[in-house]
Amino acid sequence: MFRRLPEIAAAGDAIGFTIDGRPASARAGDSVAAALLANGVTACRKTPVSGAARGPYCMMGVCFDCLVTIDGVGNRQGCQVRVADGMAVETQDGKREVEL
Amino acid sequence: MTQPKQGGEYDVAVVGGGLVGSALAWGLARSGQKVAVLDEGDIAVRPSRGNFALVWVQGKGLGMPEYAGWSRQSSEDWGGFAELLREQTGIDVAYRRPGGFMPALSEEDLQSRANAMMRLHNQPNMIRYPYEVLDREALLKELPFIGPEVVGGTYCPLDGHCNSLRLLRTLHKGIGLLGVDYRPNHRVERIDHRDGGFRLATAAGEVRAGKVVLAAGHDGARLAPMVGLSAPVRPQRGHIIVTEKTAPFLHHPTNYVRQTDEGGVMIGDSFEEAGFDTTLQPGVSSAIAARAIRIFPLLGKLNVVRSWAALRVLTPDGFPIYEQSATAPGAFVVTCHSGVTLAANHALTLAPLIAAGDLGDRFQTFSARRFHVPQAA
């Protein structure tokens, strides 16, 4: 659905991370939300109450629709976190878990 | 639906469309009354949109055992009430009664709670109800994630909670289905008792009714004297913090902290005398957050998504007022600060009595006459 603009397709160093355990690639400087979209993941979570699918929308920290689990911590705003080498990003099914 | 009575467009005008007014309107309409609800608008001071949603019995009624019994009755009837609402409207108000805890952070605190429960149950005319005083080991079995400072707590199996915003919405849907005429932006300016009925001058014209029920919360203090009643209420501010929605971990409500049916954790129970100022006080928010984290340290990992301050409707002794006017018969005042807990009673027990026009002896205790004590010289 999304493609990088040609002039920045090669910008930034390649980054390796995982989406639900599957290897994925991004560019340094990408937000997690942008990296998910670039990898074809348009639905990154299901809502806690109705279970409806949601994906990154505003990309600027306002809508809270890009919530994902990053390195084990749930409800992170994907658009407000830069993707990093080795990062484990998981789509979130409903409510976040809190470790007891 | 009954025909409009002589001298009045409605059998009953309920002043106030919050939890108290809408529960009464629901019960009155089910009793066959033609009802209007005269409400303010969106900017009304409305504790029904800011409360903590407990249906709570534990500890209530020290100084008025009849209030303990009244709260207990509502707890017993709440399940059936929620079921009636669900059958009528299709909405589940998420009422659960798993029993509630009051965790204590010091031995003194635990001891004073235990003493208060004992004094409560030693009152004459008190109908005893089950409760337990638990030490840390016993509490850990029920709430394994309490912090190291928690020394124990009290428990009462009658305590529960619901989704109170949904309750308000459901009651409004319910009164609509029952043919109640809900009128927002009808702030009542004046009430005249005339020809055995009532004329209510409102911001949007006159409304006539055979009976009038003042369920206007904070505005009761202004309205009650218009019909020979009194409702000496004052606002008491409380702060609430809500976290992001998380997987269920807290299966019992506590007096400070509860997890909602949808997963958010509510943190509350502050008490401030600040008039009608609902400005959020960061010092108070941090204090209740810090206490909640001492009780349940894992809350420290959660993000806060909302916080607000709301105003309890408090009488001088904290107990409700239920009374019919002696000088303007047919005018009733109903005011309390536990509009969620007592919703079942208001809908199922009180409303039919108001419909019949007589509260009976049981409610003598709740008359505002208890405040009319001459000052000692």
Task: Detail the topology: elements first, then pairings.
The complex is a heterodimer of chains A (100) and B (377).
Chain A: E1 14-19, E2 22-27, H1 32-38, E3 45-46, E4 53-54, E5 67-70, E6 73-77, E7 88-90, E8 92-93
Parallel strand pairs in A: 1-7, 3-8
Antiparallel strand pairs in A: 1-2, 3-4, 5-6, 5-7
Chain B: E1 10-15, H1 19-30, E2 35-38, E3 54-55, H2 65-89, E4 100-104, H3 107-121, E5 132-135, H4 136-142, E6 152-156, E7 160-161, H5 164-177, E8 181-183, E9 188-194, E10 197-202, E11 205-214, H6 220-223, E12 234-243, E13 257-259, E14 265-267, H7 282-295, E15 304-314, E16 321-324, E17 331-335, H8 343-356
Parallel strand pairs in B: 1-2, 1-11, 2-8, 11-17
Antiparallel strand pairs in B: 3-7, 4-6, 5-6, 9-10, 10-11, 12-14, 12-15, 13-14, 16-17
Helix pairs in contact in B: 1-5, 1-8, 2-8
Written account of the structure:
The complex is a heterodimer of chains A (100) and B (377). Chain A has 100 residues and is mainly β. Chain A is built from 1 helix and 8 strands. Chain A has a single domain, classed as Roll (Ubiquitin-like (UB roll)), CATH 3.10.20. In chain A, the strands form 2 sheets. A 5-stranded mixed sheet of chain A has the order 2-1-7-5-6, covered by helices on one side. Chain A has a 3-stranded mixed sheet with strand order 4-3-8, with no helix packed on it. The termini of chain A are far apart. By secondary structure, chain B is α+β, with helices and mostly antiparallel strands. Chain B folds into 3 domains: 162 residues, FAD/NAD(P)-binding domain; 58 residues, no CATH class; 81 residues, D-Amino Acid Oxidase, subunit A, domain 2 (D-Amino Acid Oxidase, Chain A, domain 2), CATH 3.30.9. Chain B has 8 helices and 17 strands. The longest helix of chain B is centred in the first third of the chain and has 25 residues. The N terminus of chain B is likely disordered. Classes of the chains: A mainly beta (100), B alpha+beta (377). Chains A and B meet through loops of A and loops of B.
